[in-house]
């Protein structure tokens, strides 16, 4: 999955000559990566201002090791240096950026950087750094902030996706406990539908693993590949089910839609799970007439090895809350008035939890994946609860409206240098723009993060000895991964 790129070019142009702009005698630059604000994050009202840290190991393995080795260190020096010089000369002007430091780095043969971080899967308070990075060789002080662009680009999305996935899991857990729904269903209740809306398949894979830190339901095959390759994932990494799309249903024609349903549940998938998109023409007809006509066939489907034989209907248009829970403005006692869950209950019935909430018959279910957000998911769960239905009657397909409407500013992630050394003397660096809102106010000096009862707490202006203490541990040093974690370990931290 390595990008065929000269990793030297994974920068903003302004990074290219910062080396010469630092004071003469600069030896070390020490920076951090921090979520600075949640003001743009559309989280649940009781969000506790903590962000899930995730994605560093994938970045280290894929970019800092694989891409740098394949695209730079293992290539002939004259080739990669010439390519870099051509890029700089053509865009910034001939000889605008010297290349002697690039030649020296190639001669060294590895990235002289040290990255320390809290464990992946940690939930870290806003304004607390999740990692620090510093050069290990004074000749390469420029490297610390040279990688800022790619470090930010590769990590903010993974952290943000994992944080939002955790919020969905927390929401589903709240309603499961409230309505007596089984807690072991929750890992399947949030299903990743986001891949097609991402900025390329690598972005889809990388972001999709963020979802997998809290769930196993996914339609992103590439995310499972990424999790296995970079996070040692084994066993049940992600699961899905056979499912139709609108082209399948349309090809069967509207006049024969009932027979398409019959063929799917009886011939193609006589056992196990099958998800059928149901709003191609008249969803309410499907969920009332078709289900009644096919009731015997649906109930007689055989369980698979896991004991499952469920037909899942998938509405894919309209107001999600009204489709699932009912529209109070619709004609009284109509299908639209009742909503999908109640309509299915009328046909199939079901059971009750120990808290008295209704659960649809095990042979039928619903998944909704159009325009789902945390706010809409909460509204649906609230609506179902008010109607006396348990939370487990719905699976959410979490896609574009959740994982694609994000930016680096969702949690204000930024890389900032807070300490440096010039001619043997340490300097505390600090940013607090008088024209700013306070979001860009930085920590100062060397940093230490301690885990407390309230999460993680930042201590700045630390001595060298103090900086060695706390929750940060070395993850990457001098071209090598020092500390490795697995997806299972990350999931355990988020339990």
What does this structure look like?
Helices cover 39% and strands 18% of the residues. It is of the alpha/beta class and 495 residues long. It folds into two domains: 7-157 and 423-493, nicotinate phosphoribosyltransferase, CATH 3.20.140.10; 160-403, Aldolase class I (TIM Barrel). The strands form five sheets. It has a seven-stranded antiparallel beta sheet. A six-stranded parallel beta sheet has the order 7-6-13-12-9-8. The two termini are 30 Å apart. It is elongated, with a radius of gyration of 27 Å. The protein has 20 helices and 19 strands.
Roughly what percent helix? Answer: 25-40%
- Count all strands and give the number: 19
Number of domains: 2
Radius of gyration: 27 Å
Number of helices: 20
- At CATH level 3, the topology of the largest domain is TIM Barrel
Give the structural class. alpha/beta
Q: What spatial order of strands do you see in the largest sheet?
A: 15-14-1-5-3-18-19
Percent in strands:
15-25%
CATH superfamily of the largest domain: Aldolase class I
Distance from first to last alpha carbon: 30 Å
What's the level 1 CATH class of the largest domain?
Alpha Beta
- The CATH architecture of the largest domain comes to Alpha-Beta Barrel
The biggest beta sheet reads:
7 strands, antiparallel
Shape by Cα distribution: elongated
Mean of pLDDT: 95
Identify low-pLDDT runs: none
